[in-house]
């Protein structure tokens, strides 16, 4: 339940207060955000339109691209608009909404990456039972569980945020609302809430990262029994996934598994995993995956052919 607050709005200090640097921030992150939406939308359209991308791996990739688009949208537009504003004001309700969206789609991304690792494990280590284990029904259930799990996680975060009373300074030394910067403004002892935050977000990130890395070690170990061509294809796919896991979980672990201590690189790390990672994921999967590239080429060819016939 929301505490009595004398603060109804916050001021986001953003990445910089220098007018010239703010223009640079606008240009850079506008390009990154447009690129993120374009890349993820291209993957979504390609998977939905292609008959060759019907395997569970691409089913999960569809939802990863969807989560990436929404995750980036939860912070990037605000950062872009604020870079052109003199005073970056965000209301209390808008701030709480951003906390919810940030954790909901971030958690969704984590779940989907885990499911993709499970899919690769079954495909490589249990190939004869792959279609039975990773059936369409199973994949659908996993995605539904991901939505439910993300909602539960976000509700837990928003409950913690709503319990914080604000009565003093309203300057958030960040470009977005999250529990860590909000804890510094609360008019109460935040030790217990920070402990709950670490045990929630921090535990999810850390345990998921360890489980994923162990699973990929098992997968890579099992490849010794495959043919040279099979190893090459599996290694290419697994390498892409491992890169995404490191990019996704590394910054998350850095932010959410430590005491509420401010480091100078906090903003940059948050920028990387909220805006940079969603931008890089389509590039990693599209550039390193021959099936995705071929499907995109066919889609582009069909588009050009249909346009020429008009």
Automatic annotation (TrEMBL):
Q: Which residues cross the membrane?
A: 24-45, 57-80, 100-118, 138-162, 201-223, 235-256, 268-287
SUPFAM superfamilies the UniProt entry points to: Family A G protein-coupled receptor-like (SSF81321)
Q: Cellular component GO terms, alphabetically?
A: plasma membrane
How is the protein disposed in the membrane? Multi-pass membrane protein
Q: What is its main location?
A: membrane
Keyword Cytoplasm appears in the UniProt entry: no
Organism superkingdom: Eukaryota
Q: Which UniProt keywords apply?
A: Cell membrane, G-protein coupled receptor, Membrane, Olfaction, Receptor, Sensory transduction, Transducer, Transmembrane, Transmembrane helix
- Report the protein name in the record: Olfactory receptor
**Organism of derivation:** Vulpes vulpes (Red fox)
